[in-house]
């Protein structure tokens, strides 16, 4: 299995500041034939199911605010929230789907307000 | 509107059997894979397996192979996750989610509690 490792495990950021979450995969999730990174990001708020934010490493899902952005390639990826809002408090997960259907998730990063 | 609606919370004893459901609506249920994801209390997301409702083609995570059974009834747009003999360690929230690769729609979750 591809192991996904996120850092940090938890993060406290002031309202309006930038939040950055790192995700590393144990092997590349870049498929050379189409030059796509098989990497998604999810947001899970307390008591709710996960919500897809970003796929193909950098494509925002419809309706996701543009303060959320994804970047990276190969084995190293970043989720950035450009200006933290109170409603962004959540746990964030990365997921590889290079090995679909055997997808794997990172352990999660808890984002709080400082 | 695409929706996945899961069956309600369950409280079971060790050794009992259980089947939970996930009903899709607002889209062509037979054209999309449905995956199942476990979330143990306070923990992260674990992919369990996936099914294509049109032909019931199913793949399991090695971690869950033999421990659960995934099935679907396309006539009623419903996917299922079942256990023949529950253990206390099966206590978790279980989510169904639509997709092959990334999951774009999720059910609300079914909390399964196994306790003697």
Structural notes for this entry:
The complex is a heterodimer of chains A (114) and B (116). By secondary structure, chain A is mainly beta. Chain A contains no helices and 13 strands. In chain A, strands 2, 6, 7, 8, 11, 12 and 13 form a 7-stranded mixed sheet that branches. Chain A has a 4-stranded antiparallel sheet with strand order 1-3-10-9, with no helix packed on it. A two-stranded antiparallel ribbon of chain A has the order 4-5. In chain A, a hairpin with a 4-residue loop joins strand 4 (30-31) and strand 5. The radius of gyration of chain A is 13 Å and the shape is globular. Chain A starts with a strand and ends with a strand. The model of chain A has no long low-confidence stretch (mean pLDDT 97). With 116 residues, chain B is an all-beta fold. In chain B, the strands form 2 sheets. In chain B, strands 2, 4, 5, 6, 9, 10 and 11 form a 7-stranded mixed sheet that branches. Chain B has a 4-stranded antiparallel sheet with strand order 1-3-8-7, with no helix packed on it. The radius of gyration of chain B is 13 Å and the shape is globular. The N and C termini of chain B lie far apart (40 Å). The A-B interface holds A 38, 40, 42, 49-52, 55, 61, 93, 95, 97, 100-108 and B 33, 35, 37, 44-47, 49-50, 59, 61, 95, 97, 100-104, 106-109.
């Amino acid at each position: 299995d591809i192991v996904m490792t996120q850092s940090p495990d938890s993060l406290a950021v002031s309202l309006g500041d930038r939040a950055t979450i790192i995700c590393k995969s144990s092997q590349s999730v870049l498929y050379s034939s189409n030059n796509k990174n098989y990497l998604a990001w999810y947001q899970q708020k307390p008591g709710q199911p996960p919500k897809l934010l970003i796929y193909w490493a950098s494509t925002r899902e419809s309706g996701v605010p543009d303060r959320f952005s994804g970047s990276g390639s190969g084995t190293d990826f970043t989720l950035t929230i450009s200006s933290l809002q109170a409603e962004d408090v959540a746990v964030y997960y990365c997921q590889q789907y290079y090995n679909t259907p055997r997808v794997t998730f990172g352990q999660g990063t808890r984002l709080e307000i400082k | 509107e695409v929706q996945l609606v899961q069956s309600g919370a369950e409280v079971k004893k060790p050794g009992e059997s259980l089947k939970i459901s996930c009903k899709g609506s607002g889209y062509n249920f037979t054209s999309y894979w449905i995956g199942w994801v476990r979330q143990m209390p306070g923990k992260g997301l674990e992919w369990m397996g996936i099914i294509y409702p049109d032909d019931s083609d199913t793949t399991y995570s090695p971690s869950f192979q033999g421990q659960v059974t995934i099935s679907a009834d396309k006539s009623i747009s419903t996917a299922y996750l079942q256990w023949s003999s529950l253990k206390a360690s099966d206590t978790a929230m279980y989510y169904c989610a639509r997709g092959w690769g990334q999951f774009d729609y999720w059910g609300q979750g079914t909390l399964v509690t196994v306790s003697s």
